[in-house]
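Table 4 source record.
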Amino acid sequence: MTAAATGVAVGAASATAIGSGNFVVNDGSNSYGGMYVNTSAVGNSFYGFAHNGDVVGWMEVDTASNWKLLVESTTVMTARPNGNVSIGTTNQEGGA
């Protein structure tokens, strides 16, 4: 799906923008609603953010199931499956 003009709402089961979001996925149930980004076993899933076409950051889950927040290509936070979280440090095991 693509929107050819700025401000055009594009959606799955919805064509109505929500807030500033013009891409909407509508589940319509009274339970969880959402979407998945699926890659192969060796690919990282990500959701990116850009301003005026320039990438400014993204969230990704790597093949070890680490969730990372990157800003301007720098990892600023990592959350691991064991619960350890690193913010602004290269100590990937977390601290006390």
